[in-house]
Amino acid sequence: MEATLGEQTAVGFSAGTEGPEQRQELEASDEAVTFMSGIEPAELQKCVFADSLVTVSEGGRELGEFSVTVEFARREQPCMMLHAQSHGAIDDCPCGTAVTAYLTTDLEVLEEDHHEYVKLEGHSVDKRCHMVQRDGLMVIHKVTTVGEEVTEESMSYPMSVLRGLVTEGSSLLLMRLIALRRKMPENMTFVSLDPGLHIINTSFRELDQRQLEVGGELLDVFGVERIIQSMEGSPSTWQCYFLDDGHLVTRVQVGSPVTMRLLELPSKAEKDFKKIPLVWEEDMQMRSKFLDRKEELKADHSSYLRQHPEIRALISDFLQLLLLRKPDDVFLFAREYFTPFASNHPADADQEAQSL
After folding, report:
1. Among residues 6, 53, 50, 51, which one has the least CA distance to residue 28?
2. Which UniProt keywords apply (predicted)?
3. What is the mean pLDDT of residues 39-62?
């Protein structure tokens, strides 16, 4: 998945950042803003599903996986939660990206967390960027770790200059919506943020109709191209093709030898799933108690998961990485993976344990 955040005027610049007088103010087009404000709840309901693709090289070798899940969530207000992740290995070097975004029903970003990593022998790179709306500002904090060197940047933009903002997370849901409509207006230009936290423009356009083979079937697909501008180099271009129901078929960065592909139609996968019949005890009283308790627990667990959709994303990330690395010591791997999430330092945790 590409490492793209975007560009424009800001409040609270980090050291070395250009001042607003040095910038040309960028804006989203009226067509883009109108599109976002015109999204209907029924359209979002159709977007609540998961995509799972395989990343392959030019020669057809599997390099990793790419997945996107969308579901409804609730924070201070009803919203959408999108989680996308890409894990794989290039030249035997593990790499990946994970994005978790909370979006309003018109795709305004409430909060987004973006994590990228590349693990090279003796030289690893880890980038984390978190943005959240707070008091009329988009507050952004970025941490870059190269080997042992850690660099932190912080910046705030007034939401007024981020009208029509599209991030990595919201762009995936935006393209899914466009694919379901199977049409888009002309001049769909939004604002975004680049890796340097500058405001830039990103635009979308409809691609020519074509056919692609999925699971042995030749299907008509709808294409969307995203062009991401850059302040320092050439624009990057991504092309995605979708089925009629919004499922992603292919995703590729123009010029890259790596492609993300859907190998099997979702409907086929569902048909191939075989349900295992449940054998109940013959004691009717025990069976009744079991069913009552089961429904009670199910409702309680479902309620908790709805309140905390990040649980599924966290577990999914861990399992994907576990199956990719296949460590001999699973417990050691799990400890190393979850240590950064600990709220307390290990030494503090030991002291708390001894005091109990």
Report:
1. 6
2. Cell membrane, Cilium biogenesis/degradation, Cytoplasm, Cytoskeleton, Membrane, Nucleus
3. 92
